[in-house]
Amino acid sequence: MDFPFSDALKRLPEQFFAGLVHKVSLLEKEGHDIIKLGQGNPDLPTPQHIVDKLKEAADNPAYHKYSPFRGFDFLKQVICDFYDREYGVKLDPTTEVAIMFGSKTGLVEISQCLLNPGDLALLPDPGYPDYMSGIELAQARTSLMPLTAENEFLPNYGAIPASDLEEAKLMFLNYPNNPTAATADQKFFDKTVELAKKHKICVLHDFAYGALGFDGEKPQSFLQSEGSKEVGVEMYTLSKTYNMAGWRIAFAVGNASVIESINLIQDHVYVSLFGGMQEAAAYALTTDQTCVEELVHTYESRRDAFIGHLRAIGWDVPEPKGTFFVWLPVPHGYTSEEFADLLLEKAHVAVAPGNGFGEYGEGYVRAGLLDTEERLLEAAKRIEKLGIFSKA
Ligand SMILES: Cc1ncc(COP(=O)(O)O)c(C=O)c1O
């Protein structure tokens, strides 16, 4: 028997990138060597000292029971210490921290927490697709904020229709940005706080790439702006900072009412994460951070190698300031999808077509710096062989 899905499930947007994964796997089955730069999955392992801490913690019988519903106090305290150390932001561990099963979970939950059917959310376009999943589940509506090169991939608040600003209840932001690799400065976040206060909009800042800033520039936390806690929360994941994407651990910090709403929904859906995980996460956040510096250095040299080579073959591409992505303008005469298909089929290089992230992603493809420098150079060489670009 086939049981019909609920209307809520039917509203979920199509997983755009499932098609790309399928195409790649077909070519691999035919025996082709595909350089896979299409997804955002960190390629390097979790630093060994964090893995060892998990192994040790797994032996502790105290963690074999249910964890406290809202997570262990020691982890919440460590998260506050981390924000104080990294950003000079003071937080209350009892009211301003929620522990989550990865930030993807939190990014979908937030719409259930704050939006009623018909409510309006402001959403970056292009943007991380899962924001939309939560909005659809909540039966809410969106007003899209285009991110364009002319505005350095920041939303132009002056262009948002006045009626949308009045109606909007929630705004999603993400810097360093997936997919455009743009970063935001304090001035931008100060302006965001001002706008949010004026129009009573809750800001959700997705800080997934918070650790990944290049050229010595540390990415700005939204919570570093004065008054930010009055109007929003920031979500931080260990997935990218410590290559812990498979572990599923993240947290939200900031506005106490929003944190309470996240904790409340999680009281009903989960019992908190395995205690050993929480201990290992606390260790990752507090111990020597050399592994993070090394990771940033690795992505930065991959960026330099890849971008340098693409420019050398005649592809005029901008240099990203953060994340592990590069946002590449497609050459004249191709759509994003046509160009991504060409790279996959003829050069065996997989990239993500920009239109999968929204209408304003058209004209770009996203490549992840998620393979070795040698393989990234090999990708650039394969692209050169297509003969599309001409050297200056
Ligand atoms: C912008 C952005 N937010 C959130 C996530 C999800 O991270 P997590 O592993 O914490 O679910 C990703 C993962 O790729 C991302 O790119």
UniProtKB/TrEMBL annotation:
One of its GO terms (molecular function) is transaminase activity. Its cofactor is pyridoxal 5'-phosphate. CDD domains: AAT_like. Gene3D superfamilies: Aspartate Aminotransferase, domain 1, Type I PLP-dependent aspartate aminotransferase-like (Major domain). Pfam families: Aminotran_1_2 (PF00155). The keyword Transferase applies. The keyword Thylakoid does not apply. This is Aminotransferase.
